[in-house]
Design goal:
The chain has 11 helices and 12 strands. The chain has 395 residues and is of the alpha/beta class.
């Protein structure tokens, strides 16, 4: 039990950054920077959804509290959006508006997990989810998976089963996936459903990139499947698909008894999301289809250009490429040599170790944070670094 001046032992492993040795070089870098390490977009959001479009003259009491569940206008928009996307008609009480998907996942873990519970965490993973689980006193169990999912001989069911213990309470799944860009296909989703049902597990379905498929047609969200619907809590965000990361608006839906319990926790931890930005989010969901289609087209081109630079396949969805940098590391056991050299050229990338212990030589790159002309320049600089560090290069 900690006493002054110590902090909680449960949260001792958490950190506010992911750069480790690279952070010092970043702080001292002078010059134009291409920030491909942050999952964000260069595009301004739909005009009607922007902060400056929400006016007190049009919305009396704009800056008062929202209902804990969320603005009724936004809840209505969520119900319409879900029905349009999947055909599912959700119970109104099954929806909870949250302060972004990060806040939603945090409150969800507080609601769902007890200290000591285990959550299967397919790796590589979104860097913050490990800490969100750990901050509850639960145990994130890393299962290397998404980088080898389609490799010959890989057995998804066996990989999940090998990680399950009597303390396992849930599986966290993110599709389209951050950072690999993989979208789970029907057979893979069926395996996850089979394992979850066999062991009476919850499924935490992170749908942050649900609208950012980069192929010709949308996929079926994991949570909407008949074999998962009754045990899946879906977490959504306005940040990625609609360019509203700064608005901090997300939403969660799932079985009504669980969402009611979550609402009680949300009341005590967050109370409610910002009312002006909820109203903007409702406009984005109802009026943003054309904006979203333009974003997907732009991101598809950016993904293809980035994949060509790295000599890897383009992602199926999302905003990232995740690649093994070993060919450019001259035998180093982590990606720091490449990351540091890239910083010198103003190109900031994320170390793969932030996405799992099994990925020290991997690197994550976001191809949507800068406009196309700046991405072209960043990729040209990255090509120069890779050419220099390649075997037989100038280095």
């Amino acid at each position: 039990m900690p006493r002054f001046p110590a902090a909680s032992d449960t949260n001792r492993s958490l950190t506010a950054g992911v750069f480790s040795a690279v952070a010092e070089r970043v702080r001292h870098y002078q010059g134009p920077a291409y920030r491909l390490h942050i999952g964000d977009t260069w595009r301004e959001p739909l005009l009607a959804a922007r902060a400056e479009s929400q006016r007190t003259a049009d919305r009396p009491h704009l800056h008062t509290y929202s209902p804990v569940q969320g603005e009724p206008e936004l809840v209505d928009a969520i119900l319409r959006r879900v029905a349009k996307r999947t055909g599912r008609q959700l119970d109104r009480d099954a929806v909870q508006v949250t302060a972004g998907a990060t806040g939603g996942l945090s409150v969800l873990c507080q609601t769902l997990l007890d200290p000591g519970d285990e959550v299967l965490l397919p790796a590589p993973f979104w860097p913050l989810i490990r800490g969100i689980i750990a901050s509850r006193g639960a145990v994130p169990v890393q299962v290397p998976l998404f980088d080898r999912l389609r490799a010959p001989g890989f057995d998804l069911e066996q990989a999940l089963e090998a990680a399950i213990t009597e303390r396992t309470a849930a599986i966290y799944v993110n599709s389209p996936h951050n950072p690999t860009g993989v979208i789970l296909d029907d057979a893979e989703a069926a395996v996850i459903a089979k394992v979850a049902r066999r062991h009476d597990l919850w499924v935490l379905s992170d749908e942050v990139y649900e609208d950012l498929w980069l192929g010709d047609a949308p996929h079926t969200p994991l949570w909407a499947r008949d074999d998962l619907f009754d045990r899946t809590i879906a977490v959504h965000s306005l940040s990625k698909g609609y360019g509203l990361a700064g608005a901090r608006v997300g939403y969660v839906h799932g079985p009504v008894p669980l969402i009611r319990a979550m609402r009680a926790v949300h009341t005590h931890q967050v109370y409610g999301a910002a009312r002006p930005m909820q109203l903007g989010a409702a406009r984005a969901l109802d009026e943003g289809d054309a904006w979203l289609a333009e974003a997907r087209a732009s991101y598809r081109d950016a993904a293809a250009a980035t994949a060509r630079t790295l000599g890897v396949p383009a992602p199926e969805g999302g905003t990232f490429l995740f690649f093994d940098a070993s060919p450019w590391l001259a035998g180093a056991d982590n990606a720091d040599p490449l990351l540091l050299r890239c910083v010198d050229e103003g190109v900031l990338l994320t170390p793969g170790a932030a996405s799992g212990e099994a990925y020290p030589t991997w690197v994550r790159l976001c191809f949507t944070t800068v406009p196309p002309d700046e991405l072209d320049e960043a990729l040209a600089r990255l090509r120069g670094v890779l050419g220099e560090l390649a075997p037989g290069g100038a280095a």
